[in-house]
Amino acid sequence: MIFRTPSLLSKAPGIRNPPGQAWGANRSRELSYRQRHRTLDLGYILDMESAASSPGPDLTTLLNLFPPTGDFPEYELVPVRDLPLPYYVMLAHEEHMTETVEAYYGDRVNVKVLARRLEGDTYARKILLTLQGNGRVVLFGIIRVQLQFTSPAVRAEIVAGKTPFGRILIQHDVLRRIEPTAYLRVVPNLAMMEWFGLAQPEILYGRLALIHCDEQPAVELLELVHCG
Predict the structure, then answer these.
(1) Pair 91, 29: CB distance under 8 Å
(2) Could you tell me the domains of the chain?
(3) Which of 181, 185, 188, 204 is the most exposed place for a label (fewest CB within 10 A)?
(4) Range of lowest pLDDT (11-25, 53-67, 195-209, 212-226)
(5) Does residue 28 have a pLDDT over 80?
(6) Model pTM greater than 0.85?
(7) What share of residues in the chain are helix, strand, coil (percent, to 5)?
(8) Closest by alpha carbon to 96, among 59, 64, 55, 141?
(9) Are 88 and 13 in contact (CB under 8 A)?
């Protein structure tokens, strides 16, 4: 299913590097990352191609929670096998992106909240994850949480907006299941280009996912990464 397919998207290749063949400067980082995360082998990742058990978040709905600066980003849904490395390994898994990007870059991340909204028990925020070492933006995200499925302590830390969401759930040992529901190929808008430090538009990749807390779909996620 394709939405607003632009010229950049129409020229985008599928898997530019088959699984196991990272390119150039990313190769040593890719291999090191895989050595630390043996569960992300080819067979495991290909399991991500099976149909999600839940419909999953709607991208337009999540983006419209916080109207973007500039044009609406152009995107298309893609099968997991069309994610090029290193995005394939970065996105096709059932782990928190917080710990995934930290393992990939070998550095902890901070969260920067760009906007937030709280309506009853529904909390949403638009965020960036930045590396602690150099401040580089490595992830853009939108999250919407049904707070009634969280404990008072977890709720308070989420609303405070000072800690990456995945780290909160890990530190509080929340019973959870992460379910990727779709993968995206995106042409960033002007705001996204500024966040990621891009002088020209280039293809980015991301995913939509649900987090089930005690088997309830408590969290909707949009996660977009830049691995340049």
Answers:
(1) no
(2) 2-10+22-225 (3.40.1410.10)
(3) 181
(4) 11-25
(5) no
(6) no
(7) 35, 30, 35
(8) 141
(9) no
